[in-house]
Automatic annotation (TrEMBL):
SMART domains with a match to the protein in the record: HATPase_c, HisKA
Entries under InterPro entries matching the protein: CHASE4, HAMP_dom, HATPase_C_sf, HATPase_dom, His_kinase_dom, HisK_dim/P_dom, HisK_dim/P_sf, PAS
Catalyzed reactions per annotation: ATP + protein L-histidine = ADP + protein N-phospho-L-histidine
Name of the protein this chain belongs to: histidine kinase
Location of the PAC domain: 397-447
UniProt entry tagged with the keyword Transport: no
A molecular function (GO) term: phosphorelay sensor kinase activity
Stretches assigned to coiled coil: 302-336
């Protein structure tokens, strides 16, 4: 029985680990779908399909653009099914690659084409090179209106590099098989036919050290696309085996000592010690207290047996504590939910309830177990039998309703049948969520939309902002480049220098706009830093050159003071410049005319501390807690006077933190502010040493 419990616990733990991997793959598909939808529902794309204006391609579909959004293939198809424009790149090198012929064949036969406003295609297609994520969306206007002008197709290879990124994210070893025949022979012998693959992943213990989970991913037609194998260590199994072996050893020793007891039956002292052992084992078994210790005197076999018993009890106690810890983790997780959660058996009796449910029912778990819902809460509670639980036990289908209690609160009540491996329903997990406030403004939103609303709003804002700002900047950069190349005629040296400055500044602004999306990358843990050695003074002087035109308009002097002992530092040069530009630009923006901005750099132990001070409007004490929050500015009135998205300081803090550093500031109203950050001179140090 103990062995089977360990195996069952190991199986459930492995299923949870496999589900984490499936969620990571699903998240990647959702990202491609959102990106394709953003590009497809854009007025410029809608016009491009009709007039095929090359300026759209030059401004918006550069190789670096696809590499930036991590998309390998982009195909524009008009309503007649003809390819208007297509591009394929290597996202790692930003170099052009050949379009897969199999993908073009799917376009020609109409498999990847959408024909109505609400039709989308999402999933995988199998190509000779590797499987590919596919997202196909109808081309509409920015307000998602038709008529449909065609289909925009985004593709991303599910290659070894992407698989490796999933391994890094989940910390598990993953292997991809394109067909059932590619599976190892010993696996095929256990999984007879992958076409009968169940909804849940298949778990196979390979040996004593490793257990494997297999799950199948389908293509866009619903057919098997490829198989993912995930390997996990068998920690629970090995612990269980060790405990069971100790138990067997204990039983064996007990048998041997019993035989020896017969030989010395006349020895009263020996018999009394045997009785002492028996009483001890009986107490442990009845009290289930494995922390007890057996104390026997004399250095003989019974004494050594007592030591073995104590060691065995220690291991059993440790295993029990581990199991209890896991149970506590699950209980803490459920008790931390605001939702009311109860588990009901087929007789409609409560088996378990979380903290929120018990507080709502004004009782404790001991009293609640065994009671029916109506006995505890009556018919005016969301926990009452409003979902017709008997019907759910018969049909085995998930059900949800909205319930209005007598106090006017609106609840979303959901019942999920819980089944054994054989499909028998053993109970119902019922959850009740208070949606009164949400109902007042969004009565038609489902429970899933409530959980994702904030994130979706942020993503749509970032996507819209990136398009609206990229387009004019790309135009400025493009025309400045043409002027610099003297396509429209010759320019003198001073003009060339000015046009060059326009081009450089435009490129820098484009990079800043791209950092709007960087905040989302940081929050998702996807931003990577590329460390290199660079001259600190040169980089700060470059920043000064970029912001000098802005400072000159307000007659603001920019002073630089760098310790003579500081020469080079090791950091992400582009991100360092991004932080410096944000701080210096803010200092100029909020300074009075004829003011002064001072940039300082000094060594602080093994770190370099950069300070940016101004003589500007400063920040009121009551507004200082709003700093470093994304999309937040200290004063709505000032946000109209001074342009900005409210992202700058938040992104500064996140980038510095990624470098292993920290940010601080001081400010007085009407006297000015000083913003500073410190990062390791020789690259990122251990995050445990950081101070924030």
């Amino acid at each position: 029985m103990q062995h089977s419990k360990f195996l069952e616990l190991e199986h459930e733990d492995t299923l949870e680990n496999v589900e984490r991997i499936q969620n990571a793959i699903s998240t990647e598909q959702k990202y491609i779908d959102r990106t394709a939808h953003d590009w497809a529902c854009w007025d410029d794309t809608y016009k491009f399909i009709k007039d095929r204006n090359l300026e759209y391609i030059y401004k918006n579909i550069q190789d670096q653009t696809l590499a930036g959004i991590k998309i390998n293939v982009m195909i524009f198809v008009n309503e007649s099914g003809d390819v208007v424009y297509a591009k394929s790149i290597d996202v790692n090198t930003s170099k052009r690659t050949k379009l897969p012929e199999e993908l073009l064949s799917l376009v020609e036969d109409g498999t990847l084409l959408t024909r109505t406003e609400n039709e989308t295609i999402s999933g995988f297609v199998l190509l000779n090179e590797s499987p590919m994520f596919i997202a196909c969306h109808p081309i509409l206007t920015s307000n998602s209106k038709g008529p449909v002008r065609g289909t925009l197709i985004f593709g991303k290879y599910f290659d070894e590099a992407l698989l490796a990124s999933f391994e890094d994210a989940t910390c598990y070893s993953l292997t991809m098989y394109r067909t059932y025949e590619e599976l190892p022979a010993d696996v095929r012998s256990q999984i007879k036919n992958f076409s009968d693959f169940p909804d849940r992943p298949i778990i196979i213990p390979e040996n004593e050290e490793r257990i494997t989970g297999f799950f199948e991913l389908e293509d866009i037609s619903g057919k098997p696309a490829f198989i993912i194998k995930a390997d996990f260590p068998r920690t629970l199994y090995l612990n269980g085996e060790r405990i069971l072996n100790n138990m067997y050893f204990f039983l064996l020793l007990t048998g041997l000592m019993t035989g020896m007891g017969i030989k010395f039956a006349l020895d009263r002292l020996f018999v009394s010690r045997i009785i002492q052992i028996d009483d001890f084992v009986t107490r442990v078994r009845s009290d289930k207290d494995f922390s007890r210790k057996l104390h026997l005197k004399d250095n003989d076999e019974l004494f050594r047996l007592s030591k073995e018993i104590n060691e065995m009890l220690d291991e059993i106690n440790l295993a029990e504590q581990e199991l209890k810890a896991q149970e506590r983790e699950k209980k803490v997780l459920l008790d931390s939910l605001n939702e009311l959660v109860i588990f009901i058996n087929p007789q409609h009796k409560i088996i378990w309830a979380n903290k929120a449910a018990l507080e709502y029912m004004k009782t404790d778990l001991q009293k609640a177990v065994g009671m029916s819902l109506k006995d505890i809460s009556g018919t005016s509670s969301p926990l009452s039998d409003s979902l017709e639980l008997e019907q759910i036990f018969v049909e085995g289908k998930k059900k949800s309703v909205e319930f209005t209690s007598v106090d006017g609160r609106v609840w979303l009540v959901q019942a999920i049948p819980v089944t054994e491996d054989n499909g028998k329903i053993i109970g119902i997990l019922e959850t009740c969520r208070d949606i009164t406030e949400n109902k007042a403004t969004e009565t038609l939103l489902k429970e899933k939309q409530i959980a994702e609303a904030a994130n979706r709003t942020k993503s749509e804002f970032l996507a819209n902002m990136s398009h609206e700002l990229r387009t004019p900047l790309n135009s400025i950069i493009g025309f400045a480049d043409l002027l610099y190349e003297q396509v429209y005629g010759e320019l003198n040296e001073k003009q060339l220098k000015s046009v060059g400055n326009i081009y450089k500044s435009g490129k820098h602004l484009l990079n800043l706009i791209n950092s709007i999306l960087d905040l989302s990358k940081v929050e998702a843990g996807k931003m990577e830093l590329y460390y290199k050695q660079f001259e600190l003074a040169n980089k700060i002087n470059t920043i000064k050159s970029l912001v000098s035109p802005i400072a000159d308009k307000k007659n603001i002097q920019i002073e630089i003071d760098i310790d003579s002992g500081l020469s080079t530092i090791c950091a992400d040069e582009a991100r360092f410049a991004q932080v410096m530009y944000n701080l210096v630009d803010n200092a100029i923006k909020f300074s009075f005319e004829n003011g002064r901005v001072k940039i300082g750099a000094r060594r602080k132990g093994d770190m370099v501390e950069i300070t940016v001070s101004d003589t500007g409007i400063g920040v009121k004490p009551e507004d200082q807690n709003k700093l470093f929050k994304p999309f937040s500015q200290v004063d709505p009135f000032l946000s109209k006077k001074y342009e900005g998205t409210g992202l700058g300081l938040s992104l500064v803090k996140q980038i510095v933190k990624l470098h292993g550093g920290y940010v601080w500031f001081r400010s007085k109203p009407r006297e000015g502010s000083t913003f500073a950050f410190a990062i390791p001179i020789e690259g990122k140090r251990d995050s445990s040493e950081n101070t924030d």
